[in-house]
Amino acid sequence: MSPPAQSSIAAAAAGTRPPTVLQVLPALESGGVERGTVEIAAGLHTAGWRALVASSGGAMEYELARIGAEHVTLPLDRKNPIIIHRNAARLARLILGQGVDLVHARSRAPAWSAYLAARRTGRPFVTTFHGAYGSAPWKHWYNAVMAKGDVVIAISDFIAEHVRRHHHVEAQRLVTIHRGVDTAVFDPARVSAERIVRLAQSWRLDDGASVILLPARLTRLKGQAVLLEAMARLDRPDLICVLLGGDHGSPGYAREVDRVIRRHGLGGSVRIVPPCRDMPAAYMLADAVVSTSTRPEGFGRTIAEAQAMGRPVIASAHGGATEIVRPGETGWLTRPGQAAELQQALAAALSLSRQARERMAGAARAVVLERFSLATMQKRTLAVYKGLLARN
Fold first, then answer.
1. Using one digit for the tens of pLDDT, what is the confidence trace for 316-332?
2. SS3 157
3. CA-CA distance, 64 to 139, in Å (whole number)?
């Protein structure tokens, strides 16, 4: 590291000027990576640090501006090797020109640019593993950039094990920081009856209907068809299934879901609705929230959000979901793709007494407050940054 870089980082670590952190990702449209970036930027701003984000831009730019973070538009969504190297030069100039003290990359293509720029400028480099990337030999080298961080953050213990097994990251560089839920927003005590009624009307829910909610885009890996098979087995005419999320570019699977609905005569019992801006109210409408992913996911934000709202949760027993749901205490875990097991869990959730439901709600929210809050995620991430700045 060059002397100017050392003195700049030392000044930030000593508190003589606010440290500046640059987060790098492809775009700011929607999704877990984008949400986590905005949430950490908010935590930095609250702590008195300077938050920079570089991406190709998108709808969530306004959220960065609202919290006091700064956005720099660069073509970081491009995977062309020539553009990756050009982006590395652009990021190096940005780092030097803006006095960036630490670089945090959240996706593979921009991570290569960020890694090269951080090494050229002598800045600490952090990466976050958001998913278990495919392990095909030809992809391994490309994926390996996410293991090059001075600290590698995994969003669950499941992802941490994947990183250890496939990329051999040593323990001192690897830390699990679970995704966080804003427990002030996802708080059942803060959701008015008017919000719930308004959403129920827009979804055409009958009074007295029991509601099963699956909040996920319509793609095969989310397993909507498995839930529909379980619904057919239940044979409950009073039950409404809400598939919340839209097809997001998967029209073939959307047609398949429609065929399953028609085959089982579920047309009057299923609502396919677009993404919802009031997710706390959506969870409050549900008698149970389901996550039927057919492949293991890195964390499971909707599971944690639903638990924060005190809803019984049924999730596939793999990936990060197994770290969130406590079977019999906060919900149920079923084998992926097993409609019969899902049917049994749904029946158990719908038959809970009022007292049992209240006990489960209290336990579910307590787990989120203890382990999966946004404040905890922000605090632990800033601790990683502070540790690296102190070392440099």
1. 999 999 999 999 999 99
2. helix
3. 32
